[in-house]
Write a structure and sequence with these properties.
This protein has 272 residues and is mainly β. It has helices at residues 3-7, 45-48, 84-98, and strands spanning 28-29, 38-39, 61-65, 102-103, 125-130, 133-138, 144-148, 167-173, 176-182, 190-192, 198-199, 205-213, 218-226, 235-243, 270-271.
Length: 272
């Protein structure tokens, strides 16, 4: 699949964009008069039109996480050591499971799943790759994730606005896309739920190494997760996603009254 053929499948906003992905510094607009240049947005025509090396692959399409087992969606490794506060949540979650209850199922209350769980929901993800960014929209709550590819650095920590999917900055390394994601809110955000209940703090840091395999039909992502407030060392896992050419995503809204059949919305089953 060539770059020119791939862009034919982009949404109307990106259909006319035919330049490859950036790894160098982003374009800056020079305002009239004196003063520093203003960084351009990812969809600014001047930023998109900048000459760049051709990327090794294009993620434009619809992707579905491979559910290879009942726990394949999880991001908790087989062995791990939690810090004391996180251990309390973990043990409370295990106890609630034994009692047929759920522990702090914030997702069932319409809080965002956030990274990394948003990547492994049972719903597909639509991805649109343009030269300066990759836009991901999940069919789970229509959660938006943007991976910037125009060479911008991470936002300074004193001015960044934390978010559940974090701020993702990507760069190309050989045939892989390496994505660095940080700046999470540190509340109502979980690495795992449903009996494991491991929280994610504002110090969560995620590095993804993305590669296309099997002639572009499989997206393989190697994850490295660190959170010095909740566990020791690095957690490393690999997830695979299948291209779904016969699938689209739809508008989805999460409303608590639609989840009344879920244990997490029942005060008798919800453990806070």
């Amino acid at each position: 699949m060539t770059w020119s053929n791939t862009r034919a499948g982009m949404v109307a906003l990106a259909a006319a964009l035919g330049v490859a992905v950036a790894t160098t510094a982003p374009v800056h607009a020079q305002p009239q008069g004196t003063g520093p240049a203003i960084p351009l947005g990812a969809l600014a025509p001047a930023n998109i039109a900048r000459p760049r090396p051709r990327p090794p692959f294009d993620l434009t399409g619809t992707w579905q996480h491979e559910l290879s087992g009942p726990d394949s969606w999880r991001f908790v490794p087989e062995t791990f050591r939690l810090l004391p506060e996180a251990q309390k949540h973990y043990e409370a979650g295990r106890q609630a499971l034994k009692e047929g209850k759920v522990y702090r199922d914030d997702i069932g209350q319409c809080w965002p799943a956030g990274m990394p769980l948003i990547m492994t929901r049972v719903w597909p993800i639509a991805m649109v790759q343009v030269p300066t960014a990759i836009y991901m929209v999940s069919n789970f709550m229509n959660s938006l994730r943007v991976i910037y590819l125009d060479g911008r650095p991470h936002t300074e920590p004193d001015i960044v606005v934390p978010s559940f999917n974090g701020e993702s900055i990507g760069r190309w390394e050989g045939n892989a896309l390496v994505v660095d994601t940080r700046y999470f809110p540190g509340h109502h955000h979980w690495i795992d739920q449903g009996g494991s209940s491991v929280p994610a703090s504002d110090q969560l840091h995620i590095v993804e190494r993305m590669r296309m395999v099997e002639k572009g039909q499989i997206l393989e992502i190697e994850y490295t997760l660190t959170d010095p407030k909740n566990w020791e060392g690095d957690w490393k896992l690999t997830k695979r996603f299948t291209r779904k050419d016969d699938t689209d995503i739809n508008e989805v809204e999460c409303l608590p009254d639609l989840n009344e059949h879920l244990p997490s919305t029942s005060s008798g089953a919800q453990v806070r």
